[in-house]
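Forum > Structural Biology > Help requests

Title: Can anyone predict the 3D structure of MerR family transcriptional regulator?

Hi all, first post here. I have the sequence for MerR family transcriptional regulator but no way to get a structure on my laptop. I'd be grateful if someone could post the structure tokens.
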Amino acid sequence: MHTLRFVRRARNLGFSLDEIRGLLSLWHDRARASADVKALTLRHVTDLEQRIAELAAMRDTLRQLAEACSGDARPDCPILADMAQTGSGLEVEEVETGTGPGSVGVVPACHGYGEDSTAAS
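Reply #1:
Sure, ran it for you. Structure tokens for MerR family transcriptional regulator below:
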């Protein structure tokens, strides 16, 4: 029962299943160094901060697009036009994150709405 609570708490904190396996291993290892637990936790915090930044960039892009849309009965829609353009809006790229050996993450590449749309054509 304690293990289930431990796993549930770790999932609620956003740890991946692999990270939870590592945490469980550390939890059961009475000779563990707390530095190992702290390092794993701080890596997770860094990952969370990156995801928060990505989500904030997406939110900001969507707000810009929504503000540019008249939202009336006309068929023209800057939101759909932006999504159809290559190199506009919010693109996500895979890059080395540096959060661990060989770790790869996604990083938003923001391009402002209203950029010259002919450049991407």
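Residues 34-68 form the longest helix (35 residues). The first strand starts at residue 90 and ends at 96.
Shout if anything looks off.
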